[in-house]
Amino acid sequence: MTRPLLAALITFLGVFFSSTCRADEVVPRLTVGTQEIGLLAGYLLPHRLTDKSTTKQSGPAFMPSWAMVLTDPAGPRWLRGQLMFGAEIVYIQFQEPVLTHGVGFAPKIKWLFEGTGRLRPYVEFAGGPFYTDLAGQIPEESSRFNFVLSAGGGLSWYVTSQLALNVGYRFLHISNAGTRYPNLGLNSSLPFGGFSFNF
Amino acid sequence: MNDPTSLRCLMLGGCLLVLATTTGCSRWIEMAAPNAAEERAVETIARAEQVPLILDRVRISRNGSPQNASSETEQRILGSLADIGLFSHLASATTSVESGEKIVRARLLFDEAIDPHAGATALKGIVIGASMYLLTPFLPLEYEYAAHLTLQLERWDGQIKQYESQSAGTARYHLFGATPIMIDELRGHVMETCLTELARQIVKDTTFFSASSAPMTESAIRTVSAKSRSPLKTPPMPSAIPVAAPAPTEP
């Protein structure tokens, strides 16, 4: 599994850095109402935060997303940025401990820093319902209906004024909000990469 | 018995979804004050009475901070002034003017005020997200834009007239109705209202800007003064002037 992932990462970094060689200056023009669609892909890595957690869940994750710029640039100095709001579909294929799947829908909020114009860091938070058939097969989760919460950050590199490549990291938490017990929850790291398109 | 009920529920649900989606995509623009003069004021005067107008300077500020003047803004203002029909031709400051020609010089201050209601928008965004977008049709978002134009026109004899106009508008939209075009439309409407009002004021002073309204004054003629160069500190070397003396003739 690590070999295809490594190949994908090398390809992504190749595209990422070759785009930096372009001499022309690209400044994305993001105004109120600018829409963004994107696709992120990453690999789930487990975190067992309590003694009772035993599952080492892992597998690829895909997140097609939509977002919209809600504000003009605001904020002081290095915090200056724009608020984006949107939603994404989270699909995870759990390859460990059992081959199962999970799919969810999460509204998300994102603060896109102004950065250097072409390179723009961001932080984001997303949360929504998540359905997985992994539940019942592990001690941490008992119900198939869960919630997924994620928080993290990343970097957007604008290859053109509309197309951006993204890399980042998210911390992912899946649990059923106490609707059924046991509800220890699954915690994971999710490094990801992908692209987004503004229009 | 259950089938018709299910069908009715399905149809009702479908109608509600369509209504919610349609409402969630709606947007409209409200101007602070209705535009009294819908059409631009136009005044046609004799060709011989028209004088050129030079746009000397355009200053733009947004929420109090100076901005770079864009050629688009300049072109729009020039176009608006051209539509009045008072001036023979319009040009920017880079255009050369013949000395002694009657011209009107214009200076414009364009002050924009933008209030995107960022805090309220963020809060409503979070509420909409938390409701899984169900509250989208019920929470309108706002974007306010106001402009204040000050135009100074200086006649060839040095007399200055100042005109001012201001306008404001609000774009109200639901989350799915937001587009960058919406903001451009709002700015366009506000700017148009301001320019129309300015044109209306300028047209009232038609006689003031006609060529025969005032003669060229001496002060208005741009002259170049010249004076003799001051002597150098070090005396110049005397130049040797060759003198051809006639050769003595033999007696």
Strand content of chain B: 25-35%
Oligomer: heterodimer
CATH class of chain A: Mainly Beta
Largest interface: A-B, 18 and 22 residues
Neighbour order of strands in the largest sheet of chain A: 1-2-3-4-5-6-7-8
Number of beta strands of chain A: 8
Radius of gyration of chain B: 33 Å
Q: What is the radius of gyration of chain A? A: 18 Å
Structure description:
The complex is a heterodimer of chains A (199) and B (251). With 199 residues, chain A is mostly beta strands. Chain A has one domain (2-198): Porin. Chain A contains 1 helix and 8 strands. Chain A is globular and about 50 Å long. The relative contact order of chain A is 0.21. Chain B has a single domain, classed as Double Stranded RNA Binding Domain. In chain B, 31% of the residues lie in helices and 26% in strands. Chain B is built from 5 helices and 7 strands, in the order αβββαββαββαα. The longest helix of chain B has 25 residues, at 180-204. Chain B is elongated.
Task: Give descriptors for this structure.
heterodimer; A: 199 residues; mainly beta; Porin; 8-stranded antiparallel barrel; 1 helix; 8 strands; globular; B: 251 residues; alpha/beta; Double Stranded RNA Binding Domain; 7-stranded mixed beta sheet; 5 helices; 7 strands; 31% helix; disordered C terminus
Question: What is the secondary structure topology, with strand pairs?
Answer:
The complex is a heterodimer of chains A (199) and B (251).
Chain A: H1 2-18, E1 35-47, E2 59-69, E3 81-94, E4 100-113, E5 119-132, E6 145-158, E7 163-175, E8 186-198
Antiparallel strand pairs in A: 1-2, 1-8, 2-3, 3-4, 4-5, 5-6, 6-7, 7-8
Chain B: H1 2-24, E1 27-31, E2 51-62, E3 65-67, H2 71-84, E4 87-92, E5 104-115, H3 118-130, E6 141-154, E7 160-173, H4 180-204, H5 206-209
Parallel strand pairs in B: 2-4, 2-5
Antiparallel strand pairs in B: 1-7, 2-3, 5-6, 6-7
Outline:
The complex is a heterodimer of chains A (199) and B (251). By secondary structure, chain A is mostly beta strands. In chain A, 9% of the residues lie in helices and 53% in strands.
